[in-house]
Amino acid sequence: MSRYIGPVCRLCRREGTKLFLKGDKCVTKCVLDKRKEAPGQHSKARRPRKPSEYQKRLREKQKLRRMISVGERPFRRYFDWAQRRPGLTGENLLRFLEMRLDNVVQRMGFAASKVAARQMVLHGHLLVNGRPVNIPSYSLKPGDTVVLKEKSRANAHFQKWWGRSQESASRPSWLETQSQEFAGKVKSWPMRDEISFPVNEQLIVELYSK
Fold first, then answer.
1. ∠ CA(157), CA(162), CA(164), 5° rounding?
2. HEC string for the chain
3. What are the pLDDT digits (tens) for 151-207?
4. Residues whose CB falls within 8 Å of the CB of residue 147, separated by 6 or more in sequence, listed in order
5. Which fold has domain 100-188?
6. Which residue ranges make up each domain of the chain?
7. May I ask the CATH architecture of the domain 8-41+51-97+197-208?
8. Tens digits of per-residue pLDDT, 76-131?
9. How far is it, in rounded angstroms, from Cα 46 to Cα 141?
10. Is the pTM of this model over 0.85?
11. Quick one: which of 64, 60, 74, 87 has its CA closest to 206?
C-alpha cells in the first residue's frame, strides 16, 4: 500500500481545514493562516464554483482518510466492518478508527501528533498488554493497556510530550493514564462526542451507499 510522504500542510490546504497532522504547529504556525487557497500552480486563477453533492461527500471521506493516513482499500475495509456491526454505520466507522493504536497513543499523550505516534509504534517503543506491537492499525479494545518501554523512557522528546500531556486536562474519559509508569489504559469504547475526528460521518456513509 502506498503512503503519502510529502508535505502534510499541502493536505490541509487541499481540504481547506486543519487536519492536525503536525501537533502543536497546527495551532501556533499553521500554513492556512497565510495560504488558504488549494495547492497547485493555477489555484489562485481558478474561478470558485459551488461544490456538487458528490464533491461534498468525497471531500469529507478524503479528509478523514488523510487524518489517519490510510489508503482507499483499508479505509473501505473499515467501512465494511462498520456496516456489518449493529448500530449506526458512521459512528461504528469513527469508533474503529479512534481505537487504532497510533491514534490512542497520540490521545494518551505519548506523542504530539499522529505522525509522531505512528513512528513510535513502527519503531517498537510501545508494549500492548505486556507484548511489543509495531502495527499502527492494531485495534485496541476496552481493558487494553499501553506502556512505553523502559529503554525508551530516557528519550527527551518522549519525556517532553508525556510531561506536557499529563499537565493538560483535555484527556477523554474513556482513557486513563498513570504518569509515573508511562502507561495508559482503555477504559471503554469512546462515545461520539469524544471522538477526535471533526467530520460529518453521514456524508461518508452516503458516498459509499450509492
1. 95
2. CCCCCCCHHHHHHHHCCCCCCCCCHHHHCCHHHCCCCCCCCCCCCCCCCCCCHHHHHHHHHHHHHHHHCCCHHHHHHHHHHHHHCCCCHHHHHHHHHHCEHHHHHHHHCCCCCHHHHHHHHHCCCEEECCEECCCCCCECCCCCEEEECHHHHHCHHHHHHHHHHHHCCCCCCCEEEECCCCEEEECCCCCHHHCCCCCCHHHHHHHHCC
3. 999 999 888 888 888 877 577 889 999 888 999 999 999 999 899 888 899 999 999
4. 126, 127, 130, 181, 182, 183, 184
5. 3.10.290
6. 8-41+51-97+197-208, 100-188
7. Orthogonal Bundle (1.10)
8. 999 999 999 999 999 999 999 999 999 999 999 898 888 889 999 999 999 999 99
9. 46
10. no
11. 60
Type of residue numbered 64: L
Q: Could you tell me if residue 20 is left (phi over 0), alpha (psi between -120 and 50 degrees) or otherwise beta?
A: left
Q: Cα–Cα distance between 171 and 184 in angstroms, integer? A: 11
